[in-house]
Structures are given as structure tokens and as C-alpha cells.
Amino acid sequence: xxxxxxxxxxxxxxxxxxxxxxxxNGFYSxxxxxxxxxxxxxxxxxxxxxxxPNINYWKEVRRVFFKNKIAVTALxxxxxxxxxxxxxxxxxxxxxxxxNMSEQNQLPSAKHWFGTDNMGRDLFCRLCNAVGIxxxxxxxxxxxSIFLGSAYGAIAAYVGGFVDEIMMRVIEILxxxxxxxxxxxxxxxxxxxxxxxxxxxxFTSWTGSARMIRGKVLQLRQSEYVLASEVLGATKRxxxxxxxxxxxxxxxxxxxxGSIPGFVGSEAGLSFLGxxxxxxxxxxxxxxSLGQQVMAFYPHQMVAPAVxxxxxxxxxxxxxxxLRDALDPQLRN
Amino acid sequence: MCIPCKKGGERMxxxxxxxxxxxxxxxxxxxxATFFLLAAVPGNAIDQKxxxxxxxxxxxxxxxxxxxxxxxxxxxxxxKNFVIDHQFGESIVNPGVTLSSLLKDKMPISMQxxxxxxxxxxxxxxxxxxxxxxxxxxxxxxxxxxxxxxxxSVPTLVFALLLQKYFGGRYGxxxxxxxxxxxxxxxxxxxxxxxxxxxxxxxxxxxxxxxRTTMLDSINQEYTMTARAKGLSEARIIYKHxxxxxxxxxxxxxxxxxxxxxxxxxxxxxxxxxxxxxxxYTTAVSQRDIPMIMGQTMLYTLIYLVSxxxxxxxxxxxxxxxxxx
Amino acid sequence: MAILEVENLKVxxxxxxxxxQSVRGIxxxxxxxxxxxxxxxxxxxxxxxxxxxMQLVQKPQGEIKEGSRIVYNGTDILTxxxxxxxxxxxxxxxxxxxxxxxxxxxxxxxxxxxEENIILHQDIDKKLVKQEVIRLLELVxxxxxxxxxxxxxxxxxxxxxxxxxxxxxxxxxxxxxIADEPTTALDxxxxxxxxxxxxxxxxxxxTAVILITHDFGVVAGSxxxxxxxxxxxxxxxxxxxxxFYHPKHPYTxxxxxxxxxxxxxxxxxxxxxxxxxxxxxxPPKGCPFAKRCExxxxxxxxxxxxxxxxxxxxxxxxxxxxxxxxxxxxxxxYGGGNDGQ
Lengths: 333, 325, 341
Fold this sequence. Notes:
By secondary structure, chain A is an all-alpha fold. Chain A contains 13 helices and no strands. Chain A has helices at about 1-25, 25-30, 40-45, 55-65, 70-90, 125-160, 160-175, 180-190, 195-220, 225-230, 235-270, 285-295, 300-325.
């Protein structure tokens, strides 16, 4: 529809312009019989805009992303999952916190959709909560680590020189310890609690964002268009707002999309090993670990959190992939 | 105009020596940092283990492990032990266990597990990546890309658990444990198949994605067009021009993979109760067994650093443009 | 006899902004042993034409449109089977790319890269291949060929790299050599040497050369025929002398006036062509040059001009030569003459 209206308007406009031009060029057309050969004043037409519509980057990103069926499906599933996990425990109206030995290890039923665990607690509600906790931890970790990492990287790149050298060395040292080992070490030192757990995961993951942002900022600072705007007297603020941020924004979005499933996975792994969340707090990883203990007799207690974990990571990855296709013009063919 | 390459060998030795020196310094920094971090931990294995013992016995044991000495003195002793004997002391929880006994008893099992995963996972992944890249945009590419995305989304842990649940104890496959020396091939396989499978998909998928990306990058380069303009067949273009250039990044990542697989197998070892070194580390951590944590941390870090060094050296070998600086 | 005939060639590239009609129906032919220069500013489709002749336009990024014909020695290369196409590429027709640094495989020794061509297109004993490589390297003026053979492209200087690229291109004894801006990436002093080398080799080996360039200066001494390309079309084509001394199209005039001349007075300004070339995602309705043309008429904005033919195969697509045009005749004058002074 839009396109059709656009062409019609354009045609009308063109017709008017043609008439105008002919009037202006009346001098020529008087001397020449055939209007077709009337001369056109060059300056009038030279910078007329071409018919190609202007492309707004973010609009285009949205268009490409929402055209990607797989990514949109993943997004819908992910959002539904989040909503269910938020609302689920409240609408079920079941006590899933205290133990209920009379309803131990039940199979899925109308009362307990996903059955109960070995303490007789409703598994559906526990799973909902676990998804919420897992995602919350992942989001907090992502936000903190990317924020810190980006700031660190940007400062290193902006200040440069000696400071940059030292800042990069610190990253190098951190990177030379395997991250899992580092997380475990930190947990040993600081003890197990949700804040220390988040700290440990952030501590090992911010270096990636820092390196990336530093690279991007360095590249942009050396790029000719930033140099050009500096020469033209643009303020630092303007350069940061107009050039650095928009260029780094797509990178940061991708980083966020890639980090969340990563954190969900490592949180689950650590909690499974008994090194993450400690009871009574629980997440998908703890449920997996509990499920494994009774796996032989009540497989659903293990399979449910396992499948949920896989679905969450898969949908996040698919959304991330869709975003990458939408954000990176070089990849779009 | 041209760089004489006569002294290449000498420069390489110098480069490796310098990197080695840097590595030792780094190792020492990490050693120190780890030591003081662990020294700051309030409670260690002794407290946990000796809770019910009388004070005098406790003191005796504390004395035996040297925990009654001042931190700096303990540090000096550890440095001495580390530098001269490469030892970190006996385990507090399991007396008699040291890092070298771990290396002898548990390391081979972890190595077997890792080697199996890499030997199957990496080549299969590379082949799939090449197939996908050569058929870019076609159905098979689409299939490989989508299935790798789905498989990467399943954590190794979940894979291991599901495999254990649905295949363990059936089809002649064992639920837990690892093959013993002297076992026949089939018996051994009944233990090793599931743990290996749990990890192998991660490598297949990781490497197929990596190889596909780097190959596509190389295919889009102008030298590929030159090769095509020469009249080379597509197969030869891929084989002679694309693969070498696109495998440069792969080569540099491979040593890291080999180092990282030990950490990655941690979950598999835990799920299948395999008596490997990774499983022991998690135990040591949860029991706050400081000498063991110390020793294993240094071990992992050393393996990791060596792998980085190896990948850097590999890089200079595969890519003639990189010179040792 | 024409060794290569291009008929109604249309090539599109698919970018994220849309389909770019890089080449929009061009026709020309090349005789045995003659030099055709295709000249035009960047983005006019001249390099795409070169790639199309080598059948290097690959789906899904680009596509040679239906109805195009590229006939080499009587066979259309667009319908050739794979085997024949491989013999054609490098053996009958080969190409020198603009930037040898990216066009040569960075991780393969230069000698090896030349060897590939020899093995593919020459019937030669394997033992003699190395001798042939050295002969070729010496032929293109690379000293120390024996040692250079075992070096990588990054160890070569820009000019030497381009020479190696040329050695590679002539290794298969092609009948047609396409030089896609062979001197653009080089220093001015080296440029002349490389051009000289190409012409020398052309005479020695009696190949036809398709020289693609944006520089009239490069063309002056070397081309037999010239085709001037603008926005994916050939706006004017003809014998070299005709184009230089009797150019017909306003775009050619503008190009010629954009080349500095020795005899000019010191204060003479160089002419520039105002405005920008049209967007080939939405090509203009009329003459593509109309909006930048000093002689633009109403008709030019409406209708694409047909070719008008002059003597010696000289042709141009411009409404100035429309039979109904009764405007006073416009002639080309060197040195601008209109403004610029």
C-alpha cells in the first residue's frame, strides 16, 4: 500500500515539476517547435533526489529481524516462557515451599502438572521459579559484565598509551586462567551466596566485552569519518553520541544476546556441581542435580529442567542469530 | 623490498624463549595471587574435618600442615616447594594424595576422555563445516547450520544427563564408571561410549560453525576469484586455496580446545562418576582442600598457557605473513 | 574476425539495499590481437563487465541476466559446460586484477601460483614446469626469478606483485587478456612500466587486450578501440582516433576535459563533472547522464537515447543526434571552452 501511494505521489510530483520546468524554459521552447528538444537548465535537476527511498538503519534492522520467521518464533516462545514462569506459581495456588511428605515423588497429575519432588513440593511451581532465578542471574551478570567491560574497554582505548598497556595486561593475566577454575577459586575464597556467585561469573566474563569495545573504539577513532568530524570541529560529546555509540550499539546488543544464554548455561552447570546456588535457593541447575539423584525412578524430575534449560538457551541463541543478521549489514546479502 | 629469511630459525628460538620467560612470570603471578587468596579464606578443610576432635589433636594436625606459621613464611615454603620440587603438599582430606599421584592415577583417565572427544569431534566438525561452506545457501548448508545451532544450545551437562538416562544401563552400555586397563575393546567401549558422545557433539558443532565461517570468509576473498579465473576446478580451489587460508584460525584455536576440554569434561566426569582429575577438582573445591586446589589450579593454568604458546607458534608456521617479533 | 562478441550483457548484483543493475545491456566485440579500452568512472560497471567475460559473476551475490550473450570464438561461454569453461578461463582468456596484493593467495608461494596455470593450460613435462615459471618471471621483468619463485606475495613490492600477476595471466597463452585497472593500485612511475609491459607482451604474444581503466591518459597510446561506459551502459564507442578527435557524447567531452594537458596555460582550471552518477538500484528513466549534462533537453529525461552511428563503427547514444533535433549543433572543444576559464 505504502509503496503504491509513494509512486503515485512521486509521479504527480514529477508531472508538476516537468510543467514548471517547461515554463521556466519558455525562452527556449519558443524558438524550437518541438518541445521535446527544449533545453533544461542543468542546475535545476542536477541534485534532484533519486527515487530510491532512504533507509533508516534501526528501522531496517527491525524489518529484517521481524521478517526472520525462526527468530520471531524463538522470541515468542521465549516471551511466553518468561510470562509463564512469572505468573505460574501465583495462579497455581499450591504451597511449593514447605515439605509435604505425603505427596513425595508424585508423577504428573492434574494437581501437580509436573509431579512433585522428593520433598513433596510441586515441581511446576519450582521450575517456574527456577527459570525466573536462572534468567534473573543471567540478566544481572550480562548487564554488569557488559557495562563494566565496555567502560573498561572504552577507557583503555580512549586514554591509550601506558594506561592502555597496563589495562590490557590485566586482562591478559585474567584470561590466562581457565574461566571455570577462576570461578571456582573465587567461590572458594568468597563463599557461596548469590552475590558472590554473580561476582564470580562477571569477573571471568567481562574481559571479552572489554576487548571488543576497545577494538571498536580504536578502529572508530582512526576511521576517517570520525577524523573528518573532529576536523570540522565536532565536540567530543557529539562524536561519542553520533559516531561511537551507534556503532558500538549493535556490537553491544549482539554481546548481550550472546551472553545471556552463556550465563544461563554456566549458572546451571555450577549449580549442578553444587558450587552455585546453595539450598534453599534453587535454579535450573540445582533442580537438574536433584533430578539426577532420582533419575532411575522418576525421570521426569531430571528431564523437565533439562529440556527447559535447552529451550531457553536455544531460543536465546536463535534470537541472537536473528539479531546478528539484522544488525550487521555486511552479512546481509 | 624483500625480507631475507635466513635467520628464521634463530629468530624462532629467540621468540619461543621470550614467550617462555613471559609464561613463567605469568605463572608466578598467578601462583602468588592464588596463594594469598586461598590464605584469606576463613575456614579450610582442617576445620571441617576436625570439628569433633579435641583441641590438642587439632593443633597437631594444623602444625603438620604448617598452618600455624605466619602467612609470609608459608608463602616462602610454598614457593620453595613449587620451584624446587614442583609440589604443593599432601591433600588434607585424603592423606597421601598429592598432585603427582593425581597426575599418575587420575590424569590418564581425563586425557583418554578428552582425546576421544577431540579425535572424533574435531575432524567430523571440520568436514561438516567444509561441506556446509561448499554448498552455501543450499539445503544441506541450511541443515547443518540449523542443527548445529540447536545442538550448541544443549549444554554438555544436559546431553550427558539425557544420554545417561536413556542409554545408560541399556544396549549393554554402563551407567557410570570408566574402563579399566586390561578390559577388552567392547567392554571398554561400554563404559567410554556415552561419556565420549556427551562431549563430542559440542566439538562437532563448534568446529563446523568455525570452519564454515572462516571458509566463507576465504571464499569471498579476491584470491579465490583469481583461482577461479585460472580455470581451476571448484574442488581444487577449495583444496588448494581456500582450505589453507581458512584453517589458519582453526589451527590457532585447536590447542586451546585441547586445553579447554579438561575443564569441559568436568561435567561429564561428574555425571558418569568417572574418576578423572576434573571431578577431583570440584571435590577439592567444595571441601576447601587448599593444597589440592593450589596444585590443580597451577596445573590447569600451565596447560592453558602452554596451549596459548603452542597456538601462537603454530600461527607463525601456518601463516607465512606473520613474523616473529 | 571478432574473437569475442558481447551482446546485450546485463549483470545485476544483489545487495542488502536492493538489486543493483551494474551492467544494463551492453554490446561490443574484440578482434584478434586488438586492444579495446573500456573507460569510465568507478561504479560504472566496467569491472563487472570484465568479471562477466570471465564468467566470474557468481550467484547468489550476482547474476548475468537472461538474454545476455558472451560469444568466444563462436561459442557462448554462458552456456559452456564446466570442463570447457575451465579450459576457457586462463587458457583462452585471462584476467589481471587491480590489486595483486589481495588477488594473489597470501599463503602460497608465487612460483606455485604460476605453476598452477602452466599445469592446467600447457602440455608440458612436469620437470620443465619450474623452468617455465622462471622463463615467465623473467619475461615480465622480475629479476632473480630463481629466488623470487619461492617467495610469498607479501615479500614482493607493489610493482613486482603486479608483474607476477601478469606472468600468471599469460602463463596459459591466452588469446584475450583482460586488464582490470592494472595500474590503479601502483605508484605513477610504476604505472607506466606496467602499461608498457602489457603492451609489449600483447605484441609479443599477439593476444587481444581488454583494458579497463578510468584514465584517458593510460588509453591514449595503447588502445585500438575505446568504449566509454557510464552507469552500466556504453554511451560511446569507436576507434581510438575518433574518440579522441571527434568525440560525440557530452560525457566523453567531459571526461576528455578532465585530463590535464601540457599545452594549457598555468591558470587553466581542470574541468570537473558536476553531480553524481545515478543510483543503479533505481536507474533513471531517460539518458543516465542527463542530470549532469550541460546540453540536457526534456527528451533526455524521458527516453533512453538509441545509438546513432557515424563512420568507422563510431557510435553514441545521445539525443543531440536525434534526427528531429533542431537545436544548433554542439561541437566538442578541448579545454572546456564553456566555463573553467
